[in-house]
Design goal:
By secondary structure, the protein is mostly beta strands. It has one domain. It is 10% helix and 41% strand. Strands 1, 2, 3, 4, 5 and 6 form a six-stranded antiparallel β-sheet that branches. The longest helix is centred in the first third of the chain and has 12 residues, at 8-19. It is globular, with a radius of gyration of 13 Å.
């Protein structure tokens, strides 16, 4: 259960991660489509690590997609949508986007408050 104080967007991302749903939104002026993987906080802000597979960006999006760190406070018009779950092909580094993880799509990550 999400504690009070989390934004509606945090709750939407939480549901999307638990159910492996895509999200569409406007972020920094660009329509984006992504699969959220990790949700939590960094520097007191709500943040998510997502795999963007379609839409626009200030820099070119690779054909297969790319990992992105997004601040929920900068998102507009977010919606859950159906469709295939997208993820990167490999992880060579630890993620630095989310300092305090609330929920991770990877269920083998221990002690996730968002899965209790």
């Amino acid at each position: 259960m999400i504690r009070s104080g989390h934004s509606g967007l945090f709750q939407l991302f939480h549901r999307a991660i638990l159910n492996q749903h895509q999200i569409t939104c406007l972020y920094k002026g660009h329509h984006r489509e992504f699969s959220p993987h990790i949700l939590g906080h960094t520097g007191g802000r709500e943040v998510a690590l997502v795999y963007q597979f379609d839409g626009g960006s200030s820099r070119k999006l690779p054909t297969k997609g790319e990992w992105r760190c997004i601040y929920l406070s900068e998102i507009e018009d977010a919606k859950i949508q159906g469709g295939r779950w997208h993820t990167g092909s490999s992880h060579r580094k630890s993620q630095r986007c989310v300092a305090s993880v609330y929920v991770d799509v990877n269920i083998s990550v221990p002690n996730q408050p968002g899965r209790r």
